[in-house]
Input
Amino acid sequence: AQTVTQSQPEMSVQEAETVTLSCTYDTSESDYYLFWYKQPPSRQMILVIRQEAYKQQNATENRFSVNFQKAAKSFSLKISDSQLGDAAMYFCAYRSARQTSGSRLTFGEGTQLTVNP
Amino acid sequence: KAGVTQTPRYLIKTRGQQVTLSCSPISGHRSVSWYQQTPGQGLQFLFEYFSETQRNKGNFPGRFSGRQFSNSRSEMNVSTLELGDSALYLCASSLARGGPGEQYFGPGTRLTVT
Output
């Protein structure tokens, strides 16, 4: 079974600064997908960024980028120019590429990000 | 395009009762997954439905069940409620099963069991 670990329960950053959230995962599979989801106080989960394991290039979405280290099974999220609206719980998630696994996501414990003005 | 909707948003039940939660996916989406979120256990996968068939099931007791209708709307049912079933239940929909495609989440149903 796959596991996802987020070792930072809480992080804080000053507005306009950069912060990196850590995520490690354990799997014996070679093909999979990794995601970062954001859950603000409204509880609505929102996809921030995704990475396909077979792609060596790190994914970027505007101010959000990842550092994907497949050999180390590490998938960190970097938020640049942090904004007050970035404050939320961030979840790292794993999805197997096996057809039998379907859309099932395995989530980490989450990191609560606070953005200070 | 309307997002994923879940009803009801809040629910209070008594131990031993049963409850049914509803999820309407984004139009055109055929895959619906359910997750339970609690402070202690985090986010856990319950099950996935596609084309009216359960395709995947998480490690939950048989008291948790679900179904999907021909219009892709899904319901989950919890029988003989226990205090530990108090949680936020999230539904997510996607166009297809698996792959890198995004799952769109609903706002959740907050269930409190007293």
About this structure: DSSP finds no helices and eleven strands in chain B. Chain B has a mean pLDDT of 95. Chain B touches chain A at residues 31, 33, 35, 42-45, 48, 50, 55-56, 58, 88, 90, 92, 94, 97-108 (CB under 8 Å). The longest strand of chain B covers residues 42-50.
